[in-house]
Amino acid sequence: MAMTLPSSRGTLTPDRPLADLTWLRVGGPAEWLFQPADRDDLAAFLAALPADVPVFPMGVGSNLIVRDGGIRGVVIRLGRGFNAISVEGRRVRAGAAALDAHVARKAAEAGLDLSFLRTIPGAVGGAVRMNAGCYGSYTADHFVEATVVMRDGSVRVFGPDEMGFAYRSSALPAGAVVTEAVFEAPVGDPAALEAKMAEQIAKRDASQPVKDRSAGSTFRNPAGFSSTGRADDVHDLKAWKLIDGAGLRGARRGGAQMSEKHPNFLINAGGATAADLEELGEDVRKRVFQISGLTLEWEIMRVGEKAPEADA
After folding, report:
1. What is the pLDDT along the chain (312 residues), one digit of tens a residue?
2. How far apart are CA 12 and CA 122, in angstroms?
3. CATH class of segment(s) 219-306
4. CATH code assigned to 81-191
């Protein structure tokens, strides 16, 4: 029996392919893709959506493998109505769909240092949910509050304590959708901040496969981290070194490959399926464990169902 969805002012699309919305360009369709008109539209839709219908908030698909069988329920993707960026003193308010790089640049223009966001490939909603970080700075370090539409349609404001930030994670409930976040930043000289970000971009481009289809770092560094999500330098192990040490730089499965340039980057080298990518990642985890005794944890989120033939 077909699922009946609430009416909305936004756009509802059935059986929407998701591969073109992810950086890896793989994956099956969403049963429904919902693009709300604004926060009120999103809240009303979720309030009226039956509680047993799964909801998955999706950002720009930069850190995501959608499995080949697609995603059941409703995938929510925020668009133009959720990408505003404004500066209020030392605080930057950004919609969840605003790209991290745009937030960093806008802040720098106002003399505020959120430069760590410049090279993070994603949007604000994902940065908040996953406590994104780079160059020793984390979202948790600058986070003031986030406006969140809960699965039941209620709207809440989460402060740092409610977010429960940890390394590359938060305690945000499943089905909750971040719509906006506020950050506080140290003051800096705009020209100096631009130069700093240009240096970061050059460093990234020299060491990472930015021209390949990837989803950023595949596995978390197996280090110790404090409750705020900051690194504890006592155990400063790098995932790429463990993968390299296991002889897996350039390893392949179907169209999937561990990058020759940076072995912690899983890439679609051409014609990969989501199963190719995920299975190669699992091969890497198994081999690294055999060699080092350490278990790599996925940083890339894997969602949805395997294709029926993959279960046979």
Report:
1. 457 899 999 999 999 999 999 999 999 999 999 999 999 999 999 999 999 999 999 999 999 999 999 999 999 999 989 999 999 999 999 999 999 999 999 999 999 999 999 999 999 999 999 999 988 899 999 999 999 999 999 999 999 999 999 988 999 998 999 999 999 999 999 999 999 999 999 999 999 999 999 998 999 988 654 434 444 443 568 999 999 999 999 999 999 999 999 999 999 999 999 999 999 999 999 999 999 999 999 999 999 999 986 444
2. 23
3. alpha beta
4. 3.30.465.10
Pairing of strands 85-88, 91-95: antiparallel
Q: For helices 100-109 and 190-207, give the axis angle rounded to 10 degrees.
A: 150
Per-residue 3-state assignment (H helix, E strand, C coil) for 131-169: CCEECCEEHHHHEEEEEEECCCCCEEEECHHHHCCECCE
Task: Let me know how long the chain is.
Answer: 312
What is the residue extent of each domain of the chain?
Answer: 11-79, 81-191, 219-306
**Which residues are known catalytic residues?**
168, 217, 299
Q: Which helix (H) or strand (E) holds 280?
A: helix 274-292
298 close to 218: Cβ distance less than 8 angstroms: yes
Contacts of residue 311, defined as CB under 8 A and 6 or more positions apart, other chains included, come to none
Q: For the structural domain made of 11-79, what CATH number should be given?
A: 3.30.43.10
Calpha distance 194→56 (Å, rounded): 35
Phi-psi region of 108 (alpha: psi -120 to 50; beta: other; left: phi over 0): alpha
Cα 104 to Cα 124: distance, rounded to the nearest angstrom: 11
Backbone angles phi, psi at 4, to 5 degrees: -100, 125
Residue 94 to residue 109: CA distance in whole angstroms: 15
> What is the rounded distance in angstroms from the CA atom of residue 50 to the CA atom of residue 40?
18
Coil, strand or helix: which one is 235? helix
